[in-house]
Specification:
The complex is a heterodimer. Chain A is mainly α. Chain A is built from 11 helices and 2 strands, in the order αααββαααααααα. Chain A has a two-stranded antiparallel sheet with strand order 1-2. In chain A, helix 4 crosses helix 10, helix 7 packs antiparallel against helix 10 and helix 7 runs parallel beside helix 11. By secondary structure, chain B is an alpha/beta fold. Chain B folds into 2 domains: 220 residues, Rossmann fold; 80 residues, Alpha-L RNA-binding motif (Alpha-Beta Plaits, 2-Layer Sandwich), CATH 3.30.70.1560. Helices cover 35% and strands 27% of the residues of chain B. Chain B has a 6-stranded mixed beta sheet with strand order 6-7-8-3-9-10, with helices on both faces. In chain B, strands 2-1-4-5 form a 4-stranded antiparallel beta sheet. In chain B, helix 4 packs across helix 5 and helix 7 crosses helix 10. The longest helix of chain B is centred in the middle third of the chain and has 16 residues. Chain B is globular. Chain B starts with a strand and ends with a helix. The model of chain B has no long low-confidence stretch (mean pLDDT 88). The chains are: A mainly alpha, B alpha/beta. At the A-B interface, helix 1 and helix 5 of A face helix 2 and helix 3 of B.
Chain lengths: 254, 308
Amino acid sequence: MSYRIAFQTILFKEIYRFLRIWPQTVLPPVVTTGLYFLIFGTVVGDRIGDMGGHRYVDYIVPGVVLMSVITNAYMNVVASFYSTKFQRNIEELLVAPVPDGVILAGYVGGGVVRGLVVGGVVLAISALFSDFCPVHPWAVAAMFVLTAMLFSLAGFLNALFANSFDDISIVPNFVLTPLVYLGGVFYSIDLLPAFWQQASRFNPILYMINAFRYGFLGVSDVPVEQAFALVGVLILALVLASLILLRRGTGLKA
Amino acid sequence: MTPALSIRNLRKTYRNGQDALMGIDLDVAAGDFFALLGPNGAGKSTTIGILSSLVTKTAGTVRIFGHDLDRERDAAKHCLGLVPQEVNFNQFEKVIDIVLNQAGYYGIRRREALIRAEECIAQLGLWDKRDAVSRHLSGGMKRRLMIARALVHRPRLLILDEPTAGVDIEIRRSMWALLRRINGEGTTIILTTHYLEEAENLCRNIAIINHGRIVEHSDMASLLAKLEANAFILELRQPVAALPEIPGYGLELRGDRTVLATVPTELGVHGLFDALGREGIEVTSLRNAANRLEQLFVGMLETSEEST
């Protein structure tokens, strides 16, 4: 039995799905982030001056790119997997000899690819406003992939527990968006009062954005090793949680 | 010969405490065309859900062609194809993609999958619709698509959960022909249905489930032989005001030319015709008052209700 073919089938189906509806999946983040670069980077940014020793537009590029990776990886998996549950075509997979790990890998793989595709397009657009050149390409590539993986897993867990379309919009709107915006996309936490600096350190997205920024600019508000360790531990925890829940049939089986 | 399906002491208690299955045993022979009947809420869908890994069992064992569903999960699943009651494919995907993806889930390589998918689609009369988006198919076509999808990995056991529910008579008849052909080619079929006529026409063996227990498990012929009397509707050539008393038979006037006749199996219908003829009453036509299996089914369920 080749699980590789089952994995490829799920992965390609997921990739084809988001490419088929590209005006809903790829275009909106491109427009939104283009506006961020234009307004915050060029119009307002010129008045802000330098941040962390770099032009403001250069400073926000990594955060804006990673923001699009986070939201797109998450939304791809949560929307697709919940819709699969809602239409009951998850039964196609449950009836077939597809192990839980392959189901998880297929959906997470789809989320990672969408995160990377959208992130890549946003990065290309940022080149119109910023003349960045990654200082540590390995950190950029690694955090790019790991963040997409982490938020794809988070989207999968959200979809497992969701019982309605409301349930798949609550976390992105009321948890993810505030954490992303307060995670240092547009500013360095050095600008904050001491209390809020400490509070920000409990936001895991701060670590990812700073490690990603370190890859581009060589500056970070947090130790980069800590950021990679945190993301690694979170990925491991979410993989384990997803596999346990799939084995129990949580949200899928009566 | 290894049975297609062997169930032992299968129990299911849902999280809300409802006991859906209370220790059922069931065997289905390889090559059989088997009916699983029961009223709504009897446990049919729970049983099928467990067989197809959509419902987790509380206790018991399930073997599909000798493969234990717990210990030889992949082998057991390879033997099984499921046609669910409700449409459950992605309605935004094309017909060919739905069948192809299902083949992929079973580890069938793309080139082979394409050959098989096209074969199944053609066999089910959906060739012209292979590139159509599935939500644009008619109800009958959607059912046939689910059968094509279930057959693409060539299962040895095909389970159909009310495959003809809500479809018109023409489609139902064509689906019966199709199922007979699939069974004739060696695939074991288990069918649940509310149409008892369907079970009587198609199936050789039958189990009736009620309140989570098997209340009858036998071959169709033996089961129908248990009928002590058959009910017929007779149409008379001339209107009659009253009917004569004929010993052993029950006659009831349902209109001036229509009679409901209860005919004991041991007396037969010829004796009735002779007796009516002697009274100058001529019968022009005869039909079953109710499906024979339905008569038995209702009787058994009533007995089962009394004993619970």
